[in-house]
Specification:
The complex is a heterodimer of chains A (about 200) and B (about 190).
Chain A (H helix, E strand, L loop, with lengths): L4 H7 L1 H49 L4 H43 L6 H34 L9 H18 L3 H14 L9
Helix pairs in contact in A: 1-2, 2-3, 2-4, 3-4
Chain B lengths: L6 H19 L5 E3 L3 H14 L3 E6 L4 H4 L2 H12 L3 E6 L8 H11 L6 E3 L4 H4 L3 E6 L3 E6 L7 E3 L3 H24 L5
Parallel strand pairs in B: 2-3, 3-4
Antiparallel strand pairs in B: 1-7, 2-5, 5-6, 6-7
Helix pairs in contact in B: 1-2, 2-4, 4-5
Classes of the chains: A mainly alpha (about 200), B alpha/beta (about 190).
Chain lengths: ~200, ~190
């Protein structure tokens, strides 16, 4: 009866390597590919949350009184959540890669009874949970500021600025005009005043 | 001189500045509330620190609490040293005690300087009721209808900054035309 694959790995790594090299390579590549994809989506989401949290914090800080004081507390909470996220990512990333790679291989090689499976998968789960939790804290903070406290800056569109420029460009022509033309028109006015147009009878 | 009533305000301004810097680093397009003078100076300090090509300011007057802030002056000196084109138009006559104005005039006097400082705008420009500032093709601060409670700033909004650039060019053109008519070409 052949030994389970994980026992072969411990007792005879060379044989294990030659027997499972292709599967392991495929497994690790698949794992890295999947994790990178997930990581990319996670990064985009995380950046978005981070930007929203920062903007919400700035809006809150700019408010008078108690809201400003609350901004200090929320800043600390955000900072802690962010540090937690970063620490978890830094500490568990390597383990998460290994665990996912071996996990793929274990599933692939039908070694579900492997005790390493759970042990190696644990950091991945911890990472995912804590990473999502810290992002959740940030989202909750943003929601609290924007919805409960109703603090959000007004937005400005390029068309608003364009409109201001157009009205400004129209104004000087109307007010200042061309001095030479103004003088001519005044002259014309003076000559016209003594000779008002005759009314049709 | 900069007036800082309490340490708490200073701490808040520093916190605001740090948060706005984070916004800048992450190239966030979101506009944020920027109503308090200390926060306006925090944004201007970040603008002048981060500027690489051009920093533009258009305002009614150089409010000392905003423009004479130590960080703003330090950032202005840094921007001038880096060769950033700093352009400032002030509608009213700048106060003689204004540090910002004196720094700008000093820099403008240098023949190789890219700095331009104008105050005492002609009536057409003086009636314009809108304060704004922008830097490169990224950040802006606007104060619509010159109402501080409506002021907002953003760290990365190229479309709005492009429009503000056109607006500044229009104001600048008006300023130049008026100066030429008065026989004082800039």
């Amino acid at each position: 009866m052949p030994l389970p694959c994980w026992e072969t790995l411990i007792k005879d790594p060379a044989t294990w390597g030659s027997q499972n090299f292709v599967q392991l390579t495929i497994g690790i590549n698949l794992a890295v590919f999947s994790i990178e994809k997930l990581r990319n989506y996670g990064r985009l989401g995380r950046e978005r949350v981070k930007k929203s949290a920062n903007a919400a914090l700035l809006d809150l800080q700019d408010q008078p009184g108690k809201q400003q004081a609350l901004a200090g507390v929320l800043d600390s909470v955000f900072d802690f959540a962010w540090r937690c996220h970063h620490w978890v990512w830094q500490s568990c990333r390597g383990a998460a890669y290994c665990a996912a790679g071996l996990g793929f291989w274990i599933v692939y090689a039908d070694c579900k009874n492997n005790p390493w499976f759970g042990a190696l998968l644990f950091p991945t789960l911890v990472y995912l949970l804590l990473a999502f939790f810290s992002c959740f804290v940030l989202c909750l903070g943003v929601w609290f500021i924007r919805s409960i406290m109703k603090v959000k800056a007004a937005s400005v569109a390029p068309s608003d600025i364009r409109q201001i420029r157009e009205s400004f460009e129209a104004q000087p022509k109307k007010e200042a005009g061309n001095p030479k033309q103004d003088r001519k028109s005044k002259k014309r006015d003076r000559t016209q005043k003594p000779f008002p147009p005759k009314e049709d009878k | 001189m900069t007036f800082r009533p309490t340490k708490k305000t200073m701490a808040n301004d520093n916190m605001y500045r740090a948060a706005f810097e984070r916004l800048w680093e992450s190239a966030s397009t979101q506009a944020v509330s920027n109503t308090q003078p200390g926060h306006a100076s925090a944004v201007f300090a970040v603008f002048l620190t981060k500027a690489t090509k051009r920093a533009v300011f258009f305002c009614k007057e150089l409010h000392p609490e905003v423009y004479d802030d130590a960080l703003v002056i330090e950032a202005l000196d840094g921007a001038i040293d880096r060769g950033v084109s700093v352009q400032v138009i002030v509608q009213e006559k700048a106060n003689a005690s204004s540090l910002f104005a004196s720094r700008m005039r000093q820099a403008q006097a240098c023949p190789e300087s890219k700095v331009r400082f104008e105050d005492q705008a002609p009536p057409q420009v003086r009636d314009f009721n809108f304060n704004f500032a922008f830097v490169d093709d990224r950040g802006y601060r606007i104060e619509p209808e010159r109402d501080p409670s409506k002021a907002l700033a953003a760290a990365n909004s190229p479309e709005v900054v492009t429009e503000l650039g056109k607006l500044f060019d229009a104001v600048n053109q008006c300023f130049r035309n008026a100066s030429t008519l008065l026989g004082n070409p800039h």
